[in-house]
Structure formats: structure tokens, C-alpha cells
């Protein structure tokens, strides 16, 4: 992880769009810029989760590892998305998930205390509620897809929802996300 003195601009995060210039100036120093190399963990299992992360650039995966160290990928987050281990962040507990960079990634981290303070003081609850609802809907749709669809349909749905990610995600990582073998993914690539 590398820290840099990168001054945040009003158009860096859509959160700032409806703020006055004085509100932006008051809030901008609460967001802490960090740069991570490909493969680095932003959150490792059992870390205290003190931040929610806005992805300025790059791509990350949120994963769970079972007792046999088998990885299950819950989600990806790319530019202009927010990500963290949300249960651990909201409850201020240790992470049961990992957040790892698939590409070199730049983030703006917002601490839990600053997050709760700006919700109250700057009426940003609506912004974060909308983001949370969209994330919740995406997670429910993913669960339903896993329950209802065969691998080919899951793959097609992924392509439809996230076409730009296909070239950015290694095939082995996409297999983990879809819960399929490398051979099955190769067959699906050929049928496209």
C-alpha cells in the first residue's frame, strides 16, 4: 500500500455532486487516498474493518475463504463503486471477508466515525441508502441466479451486466465467481 498526497477534487466522487463548495471543502479531508498494487489486500481476514472504500481506479474482489482455504468470490468493485466488508464495517468488528486488488488500485477510504458524522451533519443518508439498495438488489439477483440458472445462463448474465469486466478479470477468477471449472468456462467461451 502506498499513501500519496493526492488532493481530492469535487468530481472525483459522485457523493460530492450535490454539495456546496463550502460543504465539499469541509468534507474532502475526511477521504484518505491510498494506492495498492495488484494482488495486495485492502482488507485481510480478521482485520478490523475501519473504512469503506471508494474505488477511484482499478478493480477489486470481495472474497470468503472456507476452512479448507477454498475461495468464494462474492463481488467485484471497479471505478466509482464503494466496497468493504459491510457487516464488519457497520458493526466495527473483524472481517470474515477479504478485499483484494485484481489490478493496481487507487481508493479513497472513509472511516466509520467520519461516515456516521457526515450522514448526520450533511444529510448524505439518502446517497448511501441508494447505493446500499442497489448493492442489495445486485446481491439478491446474484443469489437467485446461482440458485436458478445453469452455468451458461450465469455466464451470459454476467456478460450482460458487466461486459467491461470480462477483459479485466482473469479466467481463473471468473471461474471462482461463477462457481464453475476452467473447462466449463472454456466451453462457454467457445459457444459465444
UniProtKB/TrEMBL annotation:
One MF term in the entry's GO annotations: kinase activity
Cyclic nucleotide-binding domain: residues covered: 15-119
Gene3D superfamilies: Jelly Rolls (2.60.120.10)
The keyword Kinase belongs to this UniProt entry's keyword annotation: yes
Keywords: Kinase, Transferase
Lineage top rank: taxon: Bacteria
InterPro entries linked: cNMP-bd_dom, cNMP-bd_dom_sf, RmlC-like_jellyroll
Protein name: cAMP-binding domain of CRP or a regulatory subunit of cAMP-dependent protein kinases
Amino acid at each position: 500500500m502506498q499513501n500519496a498526497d493526492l488532493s481530492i477534487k469535487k468530481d472525483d466522487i459522485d457523493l460530492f455532486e450535490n454539495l456546496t463548495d463550502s460543504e465539499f471543502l469541509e468534507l474532502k479531508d475526511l477521504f484518505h487516498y491510498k494506492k495498492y498494487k495488484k494482488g495486495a489486500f485492502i482488507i485481510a481476514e480478521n482485520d478490523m474493518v475501519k473504512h469503506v472504500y471508494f474505488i477511484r481506479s482499478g478493480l477489486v474482489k470481495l472474497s470468503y475463504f472456507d476452512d479448507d482455504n477454498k475461495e468464494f468470490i462474492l463481488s467485484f468493485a471497479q471505478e466509482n463503486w464503494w466496497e468493504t466488508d459491510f457487516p464488519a464495517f457497520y458493526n466495527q468488528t473483524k472481517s470474515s471477508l477479504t478485499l483484494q486488488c485484481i489490478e493496481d488500485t487507487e481508493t479513497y477510504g472513509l472511516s466509520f466515525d467520519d461516515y456516521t458524522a457526515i450522514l448526520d451533519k450533511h444529510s448524505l443518508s439518502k446517497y448511501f441508502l441508494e447505493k446500499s439498495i442497489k448493492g442489495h438488489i445486485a446481491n439478491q439477483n446474484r443469489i437467485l441466479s446461482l440458485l436458478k440458472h445453469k452455468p451458461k445462463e450465469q455466464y451470459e448474465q454476467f456478460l450482460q451486466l458487466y461486459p467491461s469486466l470480462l477483459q479485466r478479470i482473469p479466467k481463473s477468477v471468473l471461474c471462482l465467481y461463477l462457481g464453475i471449472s476452467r473447462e466449463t468456462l472454456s466451453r462457454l467461451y467457445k459457444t459465444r
